[in-house]
Amino acid sequence: MQINQKQLLLLFGALVVLVLSITIYQNRSNAYAYSNPVNGNFEIRNPEGLQRWLPAESYSYTVDRLRDYIATTNADAPVTAMLITKSVNTGSDGYSFTVEYLPIGVSHEVTVRVLNYDGTISTAVYIDGAVQDISVSKETSDTSYSGITTLIDQGLSAPQGEALKLAFLKFKPNLSNASINESTIQMGPLNPNSADGSTTYFFTVLLDGKSYKATVKTDGLTGLTLTLKDSSGKAVYSSGVVRYGQ
Amino acid sequence: MLTNMNPQSTTNTPQPLLTLIAVVLVVISMVLVLLTLFGYGTLKVSAPAGSVVTVNGHTLKDTSVKLRPGTYDVVVAQYAKEPSRTKVSIKLLGTSTVAPAMTQKDPSALVASLIGSYGGYGIPVVTGAKWFEGNTWMAATVGPGGSSQIALHYVDQQWKIAYFDGLLGYPSDKNTLPEAVANHLEEQAALYAN
């Protein structure tokens, strides 16, 4: 069998054009396709159901915790987006919903609890019942804290750590920095006969550079009372019971 | 493999089948190029004034847009209305119209999106809500566990708390409110005082 060489060239050229056309077609631009970020800053594709309830800072904090969670538990998963697969339910526990990570199809139950303490909004995110880091945010500025983790290591609950932040802010609403001197933390004697089961912690704390002697007495699982004395030993503040998460 | 069944053919004899194949390939290529350049459908959105429309998360600048054929999530949101999400199929050279029936915003959700919680009482429950001045003001009573009054104002493209006597740290001067808004709050306060 023999065929015309010009025809062969023509056929080859047509094939090349077809391959090029297919390539261009497959890669044609679509400005309205979902974005698939590769840098980990993936978003919730249907955020409006959650955004209609949560303050903006609480929403952002929730999204960050959801990103952190999948990065920790499925480090190699190529997640590009999240989807809220059930309606956001409101109840005494807060806002509950199910989130699915795309495209891997892993789902988790999420509850977001928001607390407003005289204008200071704090947010706690629970994923499959486990609390993630808790934040306190203010509209005017961010407050940095150090040493609260050490208190939690010594028995303070995570919600009480949050309540302690609120107690500091209650004392000084424009607080910029609260630094607990970790080497001064002491636990009060445990009293097995105590009816309320409270625990007391003593430590020194710098609030915007000013030193105070602090006493924290726990109240239940989520509350505490903070009292502060200045360097002369004079009592300057008692928070009353500050509770987180109710 | 292409074969020439004609025993009379030579190297220089054109083969109709090959020519036909080449032509078909070129036609397919041209169709693909045309689809790449002009393969769109049209989406039209009919929404209340002040709405923000997003398609797959991208905000539209106009109420009409050309889209590649496919399925898209269209969300229409307006400051005083509940957001509406619609899945829309766009066909080649076709036109699809989205005209969601939008409902008034849930006052409890609106208040929650601003204050987060009603102190330690949890998610706010709003009663007696009334809208004013083209839905740019909303005044209501906030519970549970109390009967505080709140007034919200839509200004600078966002809702702000103009009055709230339920928690410290919020504006609490009724004299700054429009008269109708302040009157409604007075009526609400009287209602819960009785």
Key words describing this protein structure:
heterodimer; A: 246 residues; alpha+beta; six-stranded mixed sheet; 12 strands; B: 194 residues; four-stranded antiparallel sheet; 24% helix; 35% strand; disordered N terminus
- Mean pLDDT of chain A, to the nearest integer, reads 84
Provide the succession of SSEs of chain A: HHHEEEEEEEHHEEEEE
- What coarse outline of chain A follows from CA principal-axis ratios? elongated
Rg of chain B to the nearest angstrom?
Answer: 31 Å
Percent of sequence in beta strands of chain A: 35-45%
Q: Mind describing the biggest β-sheet of chain B?
A: 4 strands, antiparallel
Strand order in the largest sheet of chain B: 3-2-5-6
Overall 3D form of chain B: rod-shaped
> What helical percentage do the residues of chain A reach?
25-40%
Stretches of chain B where pLDDT is under 50 for at least 5 consecutive residues are 1-5
Quick one: how many beta strands of chain A?
12
**Proportion in β-strands of chain B:** 35-45%
The tally of helices of chain A reads 5
Individual helix count of chain B:
3
* Average pLDDT over all residues of chain B: 89
Order of helices and strands of chain B: HEEEEEEEHEEEEH
**CA(first)-CA(last) distance of chain B:** 95 Å
Number of DSSP strands of chain B? 11
Q: What summary fits the major beta sheet of chain A?
A: 6 strands, antiparallel
Give a structural overview.
The complex is a heterodimer of chains A (246) and B (194). In chain A, strands 1, 2, 3, 4, 5 and 6 form a six-stranded antiparallel sheet that branches. Chain A has a six-stranded mixed sheet with strand order 7-8-9-10-11-12. Chain A is 26% helix and 37% strand. The longest helix of chain A has 22 residues. Chain A has 246 residues and is of the alpha+beta class. By secondary structure, chain B is α+β, with helices and mostly antiparallel strands. Chain B has three helices and eleven strands. The N terminus of chain B is likely disordered. The chains are: A alpha+beta (246), B alpha+beta (194). Chains A and B meet through α1, α2, β4 and β5 of A and α1, β5, β6 and α2 of B.
